Every structure is written in structure tokens, then in C-alpha cells.
């Protein structure tokens, strides 16, 4: 089963159009809910005025004063209110102030426009530098949402003695997830006061995050809150933490109205108000000896975290650890900060801080190679981590790591050297076209950073059903990545049963245990491993209780499950995460094994630039990666191809344009994601190296492909155009024009 | 809801159309999009709303065989026409060759763009035209997908087109 590509479990329903996404669920008597937002980046809310011409008495209206429990969204830090109350501070321009619900969807939209907010405006901080300068103190005493330092050796004495010291600054922009299904939630509260039963159905990645948020919002115990994950039209991190907010809103409207309430964002609201990839600025300083060996690295890594902490502390943590990148370096200082601004909080997006710091490092290596007079491929090869080396956190590489071999495969598949030689000639020709090929080498830590998995202590299980089949019990959600399929493969594989004998239970907190959030490339490796244990446990229990004899066939196993369920009433076996014995991490010093292991990649991108229009077309793309054992080759390739498409978009086209902290290109018409006509064929190659910590040897894969494309593309642009200030993504035609003019004007 | 518009003209209209081969007669507000009528009144929820501005293609239906974005197509314009939604593609629970190709090639991830893409691919297959690889990529570029990078979608479309051509030629695939 491991290594096969059986059909996606829910594929048939999706292709028939019968899958039920949140907005496809119709509850009788449901109201439509909308959110009134602040519209100014910073100020004090003085009053709310309800305009004329709207039958307000027919509306359900919820303000902060109505909140029965705690007006704080449960997260890493509980600092964000569900609604801003009168007299309280508004800290970003899309902040929820007031909720409205009505049975008539068109009337509620009209009413939205009739509410006027009276706000005493305050000066706002809208970018990283203004926040660092403390032009206004908008968060705590220093505008810092989180600060992390990672230290290895001592770079201090190195700078003066090194043959080469090279500095650079790199920036990355915000990126919109653009899942095809906008955020959608249905809330239903039955009963009042302490007897209330709160249920939400929604498009959400992390049912137990939403569960915690609703418990705190209403002040209710576990058993009075239920969260059900509906079919989800994409997420990529965009439905990791935000659904705690809109689920709270839908539930509050239902609590007040006594009717189910649907809150479905339209595309404009979704783009303007929900999370994005964090904008970043990275300053790097590196020292090399005369032979191009890396002696010291200093990284100053800063994320724009928006108005509240939300997930910024953990995004920063992953970004900081990955700032050390794939190179051996004896002396490292990483200083990472997430700063507050008066903008809607960014959040999780595939890669989670790593694409930002890896972009900086992989561009910087290209810049360094040029300065050292070395080929960039050779400079990388001289400095790659190998078995026995230590990373920035002191983590020792214990696996047989061959980054040189990985890179060689990418060089060969992309015909990198041949193309470089050919382009050197063709780029001399007249005409506007210039061609280039570039690569990047990178890694992605599998699972939560540091002690995250130990704190989660995830639980997942396998249940035997009355018909003798098996059901996977886990809160991990299907967002298109293939969790349903892979979990069934892992359980079937562990037991030697056919794939069709296993299915997944509905992700409903009343039914499935907390297997942790569906994030961090952790589902296959971490939850999959727990399921492997649970499946074996179920089998042993059947054997010990005399229902099953080994060896067994699918039919005798099915019969054993049937009998056991009939006799015992139910048959479930749970497993729980156990920290592997050789893994250690210190949350205070940021020293130790930041991840149980890493997935590794080398991507090569070929571009052609039209110097008349500065348009960049991606002509070819080769993706070589080592992700442990590949559980399902078709799904795995799908993850890589999709991640690369998002990475190409982030690198070249996708720009969030803002005015006073608000996104103003919040439509699909002017926020440009790649179409089928914009992308090349992507060649995907897996080098398999089974890892003992994952099920069947699998590691994480979901996020890795986001890390490589942007630096590979900009390195290709440097190959096409020569040394330019290629220090920022997205490298839009406008930015590329400016950089080319800098060179031609000296 | 208004029953008359500013000019005093009745704002409601009786709409007669065929949806997936069955005659439908329904009173609508003339401002309603075909998407709203199909989803909210007739419960064809396989028609997806992704952007409301005709950009993403998730709401695609076939109108007399031609793909249209139902979110920017007034329901009133569908009077007398034949509408095919994703629910009308499989026959008696048997997937069409296009649907089979999408499942087999791994062209489905989150599934939200899938109905529209299956319908546009179906229109391409039924056109009887031959398409080059670049033409397939251009034909499908009105559908945004954020999950797949389009590669397996293009593979599925090319497979369905190839199979249809082979069937028309009477040669094995």
C-alpha cells in the first residue's frame, strides 16, 4: 500500500459535484451573517450609528457587549478580540466591530452599508521600519510580537580575519492563499446560558483550535461545543487560525438569534480581511575563507506580524530555524523578530516563515558566489550539510544526507550546465529576449518546531465497524492534499489489508480525538505514524481476545472485526505521539533538535525575459526532492506541482497592494495567480530515503515545494540579465524594470 | 425584495429552461444570476461560487453546450435554453470519460474548481476539434485552480480528448 497510488477517497464525490462544502449545507430557518469592520488602521471606537431606511428591528445585531464569555480569540497569545467594544482601541482597518444577521441575504448586504462608525483616529504604523523605529508604540512596550535568538559558536572574531565578508538585504511581500472556496462557517447554538450547545460546521483546518476558541468565547465546557469540518475547497494555512474568528462570529449571531447563521465571505472580504503570508526583511552577513568555506553567518530576520500576535511567534520560529539553511557553518547568530503593525494579522501559509528566510539565503549564496568568483553550484557544494554536521541550533544530522547528489540530479534533469553555456551565447544576440537558468537548495522541517509535537501529544485511532471494515479516527482535515487517502493507505498497509476496507470517519469533535492541527507537513509523518501504531494495536487486541488468528486474510480479518463489534459493542484502538528517544529541544535557549527530521530539495527554474515588456515567462521547471518514502506518488507529485505553482506566483506576480493598511487589489481580477497558460511543465523527481520516524519511512511534503521556486527564479533572472539588485519578491515587471535601469544608469 | 423596478416594470419573470435534460419553470427576480437560481433555488450545489466576477470559472455551466460563468450571467437570459451542470454529466451514476480521466490522472485536489473544469473539458471533447498542448492550456486558463499547478488537470483533459478522438476514429487508445 505504501508507494501505491489508489484513487483519492473522496474523488468520485468531487467529480460528481456531490461533495458538501459549507455553503452547500442548508439549514432550515438559517440567517445570513455579515461583519462590519473598522476601516481605519488605528483609533478609538466612539459610537456606532444605524442609518435610516433599514428595518433594524428585524435584524440580529451583536456587539462586543453581547459576548457571554471572554472576548479574546484563543491562540498562541490571547490578544485578539472577536469584536472591538465602544471605548476600545481599533488596531487594524479590517477589525470586526459589529455583526448583523437577517434571513434576506440581499437586505443584510444593504444594511452593512448603512452602519456608520464614529472613530477617533490615532496615528498608525504600517510597515516594518516604522514599527522598529517605535514611531508609535502600538504593542506592548517595544512593538515586538516575538523575538528569538539562535546562537552557535562565536562569529565575533571571524569578521576581521575572514578572506571575504559579504552582506545583503532581502525582502518578500505578503501573499494571498487564494483557496478557491472563500472562508465559510455555519453556527448553531441551541439552548441558552450555561445549558447552551454550540455547533459549527465549517471550512477549517484545525477543528480543535476552533473548539478551544468557542469554549473560551462562550465560557462552556468541552462537551457543549462541537466542531464539524465540511468538505474544504483549499486552505494552504489560510484556514488554520482564521476560522476561530469567523466561527465565533457565526456562533454569536446564532446564540443571540436562536437560529442557525451562515457566515460566508465573498471574495473581496476574504482577500481584504483574512490572513496572508508574512511580509519579511532579512539582512545577512556571511564570512568565507579564501576557498569559499562558510565561516560565519549573521541573520537579522524580521516579519511584519500585523496588529496581533496570532501565529506570528511560531511562524517566526520556523523562519528563524530555517535561516541557517542547508549549509555547514561553525559560527552563527540568528536574531528574529516579529513586529506589530496596524494591518490585518498575517498567519499561516504553506512554508510558515521558511520560504522567507530561505529566499534570502539562496539569493545571498548566488551573490556571494559572484563576489568570490566561484560558480554558485560549486560554492553550495563546498558548504552543504552532511551526516555528522551540526545545524545552527546544534542539531546533529543523523541521516545519510547527500545534498550534492540531490543537486547533481537536478543539474542533470534540467541540463543546467548545457543551458548556461547555450544562453551565454544566445543572450549576446540582438532582440529583446534573454534566457537564464537558476537553482535553489533548501530544506523543510517536518512537523511542529521544537517541543511543539510533545506539547500537542496528538491522539488518533482506528475503529472497527459493524460490517467488519475499519474507520480512521483523527481530527486531521482533508483540504485537497490527500489526507483521507494517505491515512487509509497507512492503516491498510500496517495491517496488510485492502485499501477499500478502510475509510475515514467524519471529522467531528464529538467523534474523533485531537490528532492536532492539519498543518506543518505533519499529517502523513506524525499522525500517520500514530495511526500505524493504533492499527497494530487494534490487530493485537483482536488476537489477544481470541477474535483473530495470524496469519489472516482480508476476509478472516473482516469476520474478526464483525464478531468483536457484535460482542463488545465497539472496537477502537488509539495511539499517541511519543517523542523519539534521541530528540531533545530547549525552548529557552533554542538549542537542540528543532525537528525530528527534514525534507530536502533542489529546484531548477528556466526563464525567458522580454526586455521590451519586462515580462518573465517560466520555460521549464525541475523539482528534485527527498521526502523519505513516498506514500502515494500521484498525490505527492500533486503537492509538489501545486506548491511550485504557488511559489512561482509568489516569486513573480502575486502582489498585495495596500493603502492605509488595507488591501486594495482584493479581487481575482487584479491579484494575479498563475493560470494553466502561465506555467511550464514541471518535472518532479523523488529520491527516496526511508526515515524511521515516519509511517513506512515517510517524511513531510506539503510545504517543502513552496520554499524553492522563488530563489531559483531570481537566480535564473540573474543568469539571464547579469548582476542586478534581485533582492525582492514578487519580482514584477515593474520592479525588474527599475533594477535594470539602476544598472544602465549606473 | 422589490417587485417592480424604478421604471415601474415588473421585476419578476417566469423563467423556462432545461436543466440537465429536465424542464424547469420558476419565477425569478430579474436581477438574479443564473448561479443564484441554480444553487439557492434549484439546489444544484455542484455549481460553485468562487469570485462573483467571472474570473475563477468555478461557477461554469454549459449553456446549449457552451461554457459560461453563471455568476455573471443573468438567469433571465437562460430562458428557453438548455443548461448542463456537473450534476448532469454522469449517467445513472456512471462517470463520463472526462470525469474518469480527472479521477485517474489525479487532477482533483480540493475539488472546488473541479466541476467547472470537467464541464469545460466536456465542451472541448464534444466540439470534436483537435487541440495542441498549448491550446489545451489556453482553453482551460479561464479556470483558476490553486491546488494542482494544473499539470494533472491538463493531463486529464488531454487523456479525455485523446480517448474521444480514438473513439471517433474507431482506433484503440
Features:
heterodimer; A: 746 residues; alpha+beta; seven-stranded mixed sheet; 20 helices; 28 strands; 30% helix; globular; B: 173 residues; five-stranded mixed sheet; 5 helices; 5 strands; 16% strand
Summarize the structure.
The complex is a heterodimer of chains A (746) and B (173). Chain A has 746 residues and is an alpha+beta fold. Helices cover 30% and strands 23% of the residues of chain A.
Average pLDDT number of chain B: 94
Secondary structure: helix percent of chain B: 25-40%
Give the overall form of chain A.
globular
Tell me the fraction of residues in β-strands of chain A, as a range.
15-25%
- As laid out across the biggest beta sheet of chain B, the strand order is 2-1-5-3-4
How many angstroms does the end-to-end distance of chain A come to?
Answer: 60 Å
Q: How much is the average pLDDT of chain A?
A: 97
Oligomer: heterodimer
Stretches with pLDDT under 50, minimum 5 residues of chain B: none
Bin the strand percentage of chain B.
15-25%
Q: Class by helix and strand content of chain B? A: alpha+beta
How would you characterize the largest beta sheet of chain A?
A: 7 strands, mixed
The coarse overall form of chain B would be globular
Fold and architecture overview:
The complex is a heterodimer of chains A (746) and B (173). Chain A is an alpha+beta fold. Chain A is globular. The termini of chain A are far apart. Chain B contains five helices and five strands. Chain B has helices at 34-41, 97-104, 114-127, 133-139, 151-169, and strands at 12-19, 22-29, 60-63, 66-69, 82-84. In chain B, a hairpin with a 2-residue loop joins β3 (60-63) and β4 (66-69). In chain B, α2 crosses α5 and α3 runs parallel beside α5 (151-169). Chain B is globular, with a radius of gyration of 17 Å. The mean pLDDT of chain B is 94. The interface between A and B is large, with 60 and 54 residues.
Amino acid at each position: 500500500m505504501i508507494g501505491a497510488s489508489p484513487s483519492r477517497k473522496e474523488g468520485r464525490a468531487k467529480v460528481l459535484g456531490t461533495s458538501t462544502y459549507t455553503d452547500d449545507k442548508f439549514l432550515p430557518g438559517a440567517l445570513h451573517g455579515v461583519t462590519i469592520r473598522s476601516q481605519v488602521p488605528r483609533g478609538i471606537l466612539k459610537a456606532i450609528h444605524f442609518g435610516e431606511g433599514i428595518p433594524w428591528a428585524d435584524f440580529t445585531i451583536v456587539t462586543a457587549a453581547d459576548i457571554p464569555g471572554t472576548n479574546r480569540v484563543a491562540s498562541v497569545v490571547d490578544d485578539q478580540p472577536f469584536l472591538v467594544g465602544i471605548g476600545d482601541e481599533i488596531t487594524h482597518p479590517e477589525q470586526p466591530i459589529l455583526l448583523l444577521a437577517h434571513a434576506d441575504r440581499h437586505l443584510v448586504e444593504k444594511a452593512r452599508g448603512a452602519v456608520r462608525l464614529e472613530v477617533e483616529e490615532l496615528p498608525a504604523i504600517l510597515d516594518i521600519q516604522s514599527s522598529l523605529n517605535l514611531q508609535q508604540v502600538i504593542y506592548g512596550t517595544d512593538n515586538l510580537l516575538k523575538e528569538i535568538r539562535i546562537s552557535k559558536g562565536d562569529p565575533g572574531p571571524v569578521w576581521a580575519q575572514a578572506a571575504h565578508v559579504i552582506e545583503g538585504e532581502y525582502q518578500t511581500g505578503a501573499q494571498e492563499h487564494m483557496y478557491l472556496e472563500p472562508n465559510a462557517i455555519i453556527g448553531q447554538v441551541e439552548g441558552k446560558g450555561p445549558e447552551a450547545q454550540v455547533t459549527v460546521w465549517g471550512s477549517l483546518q484545525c477543528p480543535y483550535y476552533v473548539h478551544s476558541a468557542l469554549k473560551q468565547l462562550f465560557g462552556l465546557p468541552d462537551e457543549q461545543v462541537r466542531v464539524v469540518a465540511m468538505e474544504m475547497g483549499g486552505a494552504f494555512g489560510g484556514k488554520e487560525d482564521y476560522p476561530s474568528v469567523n466561527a465565533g462570529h457565526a456562533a454569536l449571531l446564532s446564540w443571540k438569534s436562536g437560529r442557525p447563521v451562515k457566515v460566508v465571505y465573498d471574495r473581496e472580504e476574504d482577500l481584504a480581511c483574512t490572513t496572508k503570508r508574512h511580509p519579511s526583511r532579512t539582512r545577512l552577513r556571511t564570512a568565507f575563507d579564501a576557498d569559499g568555506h562558510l565561516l560565519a553567518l549573521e541573520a537579522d530576520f524580521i516579519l511584519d506580524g500585523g496588529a496581533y500576535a496570532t501565529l506570528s511567534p511560531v511562524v517566526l520560529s520556523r523562519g528563524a530555524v530555517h535561516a541557517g539553511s542547508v549549509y555547514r557553518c561553525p559560527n552563527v547568530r540568528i536574531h528574529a523578530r516579529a513586529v506589530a503593525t496596524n494591518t490585518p494579522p498575517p498567519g499561516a501559509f504553506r512554508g510558515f516563515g521558511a520560504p522567507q528566510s530561505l529566499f534570502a539565503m539562496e539569493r545571498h549564496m548566488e551573490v556571494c558566489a559572484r563576489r568570490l568568483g566561484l560558480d554558485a553550484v560549486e560554492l553550495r557544494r563546498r558548504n552543504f550539510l552532511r551526516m555528522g554536521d551540526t545545524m545552527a541550533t546544534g542539531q546533529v544530522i543523523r541521516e545519510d544526507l547527500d545534498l550534492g547528489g540531490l543537486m547533481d540530479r537536478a543539474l542533470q534533469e534540467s541540463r543546467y550546465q548545457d543551458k548556461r553555456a547555450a544562453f551565454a551565447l544566445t543572450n549576446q544576440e540582438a532582440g529583446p529576449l534573454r534566457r537564464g537558468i537558476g537553482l535553489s537548495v533548501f530544506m523543510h522541517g517536518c512537523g511542529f518546531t521544537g517541543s511543539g509535537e510533545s506539547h500537542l501529544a496528538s491522539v488518533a485511532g482506528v475503529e472497527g465497524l459493524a460490517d467488519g471494515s475499519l474507520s480512521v479516527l483523527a481530527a486531521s482535515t482533508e483540504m485537497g492534499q490527500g489526507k483521507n487517502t494517505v491515512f487509509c493507505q497507512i492503516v491498510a498497509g500496517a495491517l496488510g489489508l485492502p485499501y477499500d476496507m478502510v475509510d475515514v470517519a467524519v471529522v467531528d469533535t464529538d467523534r474523533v480525538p485531537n490528532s492536532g492541527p492539519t498543518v506543518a507537513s505533519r499529517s502523513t509523518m506524525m499522525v500517520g505514524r500514530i495511526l500505524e501504531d493504533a492499527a497494530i494495536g487494534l490487530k493485537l487486541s483482536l488476537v489477544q481476545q481470541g477474535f483473530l488468528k495470524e496469519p489472516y486474510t482480508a476476509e478472516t480479518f473482516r469476520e474478526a472485526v464483525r464478531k468483536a463489534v457484535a460482542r463488545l459493542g465497539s472496537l477502537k484502538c488509539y495511539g499517541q505521539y511519543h517523542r523519539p528517544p534521541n530528540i531533545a529541544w530547549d525552548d529557552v535557549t533554542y538549542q537542540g533538535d528543532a525537528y525530528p527530521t527534514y525534507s530536502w530539495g533542489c529546484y531548477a527554474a528556466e526563464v525567458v525575459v522580454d526586455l521590451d515588456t519586462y515580462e518573465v515567462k517560466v520555460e521549464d521547471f525541475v523539482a528534485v526532492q527527498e521526502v523519505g518514502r513516498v506514500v502515494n506518488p500521484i498525490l505527492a507529485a500533486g503537492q509538489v506541482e501545486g506548491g511550485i505553482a504557488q511559489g512561482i506566483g509568489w516569486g513573480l506576480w502575486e502582489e498585495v497592494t495596500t493603502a492605509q493598511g488595507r488591501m486594495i487589489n482584493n479581487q481575482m481580477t487584479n491579484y494575479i495567480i498563475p493560470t494553466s497558460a502561465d506555467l511550464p511543465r514541471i518535472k518532479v523527481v523523488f529520491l527516496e530515503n526511508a526515515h524511521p520516524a515516519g509511517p513506512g519511512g515517510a517524511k513531510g511534503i506539503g510545504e517543502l515545494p513552496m520554499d524553492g521556486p522563488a530563489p531559483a527564479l531570481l537566480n535564473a533572472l540573474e543568469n539571464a540579465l547579469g548582476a542586478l539588485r534581485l533582492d525582492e519578491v514578487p519580482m514584477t515587471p515593474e520592479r525588474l524594470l527599475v533594477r535594470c535601469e539602476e544598472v544602465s544608469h549606473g | 425584495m422589490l417587485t417592480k423596478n424604478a421604471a415601474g416594470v415588473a421585476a419578476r419573470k417566469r423563467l423556462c429552461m432545461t436543466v440537465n435534460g429536465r424542464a424547469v419553470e420558476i419565477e425569478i427576480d430579474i436581477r438574479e444570476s443564473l448561479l443564484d437560481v441554480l444553487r439557492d433555488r434549484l439546489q444544484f450545489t455542484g455549481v460553485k461560487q468562487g469570485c462573483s466576477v467571472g474570473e475563477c470559472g468555478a461557477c461554469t455551466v454549459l449553456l446549449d453546450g457552451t461554457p459560461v460563468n453563471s455568476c455573471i450571467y443573468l438567469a433571465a437570459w437562460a430562458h428557453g435554453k438548455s443548461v448542463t451542470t456537473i450534476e448532469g454529466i454522469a449517467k445513472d451514476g456512471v462517470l463520463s470519460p472526462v470525469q474518469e480521466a480527472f479521477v485517474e490522472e489525479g487532477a482533483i485536489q480540493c475539488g472546488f474548481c473541479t466541476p467547472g473544469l470537467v464541464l469545460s473539458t466536456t465542451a472541448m471533447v464534444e466540439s470534436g476539434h483537435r487541440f495542441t498542448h498549448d491550446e489545451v492550456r489556453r482553453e482551460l486558463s479561464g479556470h483558476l485552480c490553486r491546488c494542482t499547478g494544473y499539470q494533472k488537470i491538463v493531463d486529464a483533459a488531454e487523456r479525455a480528448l485523446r480517448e474521444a478522438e480514438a473513439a471517433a476514429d474507431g482506433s484503440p487508445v
